Amino acid sequence: MDIEGIDVAVVYPSRGLFALTIPDMEPRLAAAMARAYNDWLYEFCQENPERLLGAGMISPFDVNDAVAEATRCVRELGFRAMFLRPNEVNGRNWHDPYYEPLWATLEALEVPLGFHEGSGSQLRQVGEQFGTNTMLKHIYSHPVEQMLTAGAFCAGGILERHPRLRVAFLEGNCSWVPFLLWRMDEHWEWLGDIYARELTMAPSAYFKRQCFVSVECDEEPVKHVIDAIGDDRIVFSTDFPHGDSKFPRAVESFLTLPISEQSKRKILWDNCAAYYGLPA
């Protein structure tokens, strides 16, 4: 963190991303694994609890387990966020009514939810059609899985029902956002009176009100995202210690992007503080 000039880090997993990615996983086992990870993460963050903040793992295999663990993470462990993989679990999309208790709980706890993808999963994933070609799998799995999840939240009614829920789409770039928001709005205007009767505004309006998306340190197309939706909904990650991280020059690389100094400040701190509920 000191090498990169990072003051505060919210800690997401690496190998932990693959812990709950087996179809039809026994719910009690999945819940126990989430609790064990969160207990470990709490101890890890005690090295410097003012600079290391936890993002808790919750199991999607039983919504009641997810509700209980999210509550424990916030009230007992002091975590500042929860995370899920965006992959569909047991045939339920995220806007399925089954998950409503979880969204309501996160909203009541005022804790944000971050979706963080990984390239490997035994759960259904768009990259699997490329088999063992890791390059092609990695190209598509991260942004496309996030796009599918953004659709469920913005056009599937979740954010209409939970107007105070904050959601982030992490580890999947941000350059897809303008196109997806345009396409969701276009289809809402065309078919929303039949398939999205619950929505009271365009899908893009929900995104701009409640969602955040992360930019990679060398993602030059971010300038087009800012042109399309402004610079209030973009956050930053070094991606350390993953193989495609630019450590130890992630922040240095970000500072060379062709965007304004004001936007850089907001992305590096202000927007992250707003998402995680930290002092500005």
Write up this protein:
The chain is α/β, with parallel strands linked by helices and 280 residues long. The chain has one domain: Metal-dependent hydrolases (TIM Barrel). The longest helix is centred in the middle third of the chain and has 21 residues, at 134-154. Helix 4 (134-154) crosses helix 7. The protein is globular, with a radius of gyration of 18 Å. The chain is 44% helix and 10% strand.
Residue share in helices? 40-55%
Could you give the distance between the termini? 20 Å
| DSSP, total strands | 7
CATH class: Alpha Beta
The CATH superfamily turns out to be: Metal-dependent hydrolases
Which SSEs are present, and which pair or pack?
Elements: E1 9-11, H1 27-45, E2 52-57, H2 63-75, E3 81-84, H3 100-109, E4 113-116, H4 134-154, H5 158-161, E5 167-170, H6 177-195, H7 203-210, E6 211-215, H8 222-229, E7 234-236, H9 250-254, H10 261-276
Parallel strand pairs: 1-2, 2-3, 3-4, 4-5, 5-6, 6-7
Helix pairs in contact: 1-2, 2-3, 4-7
Describe what is shown at a glance:
The protein is α/β, with parallel strands linked by helices and 280 residues long. The protein has 10 helices and 7 strands. The protein has a single domain (9-276), classed as Metal-dependent hydrolases (TIM Barrel), CATH 3.20.20.140.
Q: What characteristics describe this protein?
A:
280 residues, alpha/beta, TIM Barrel, seven-stranded parallel β-sheet, 10% strand
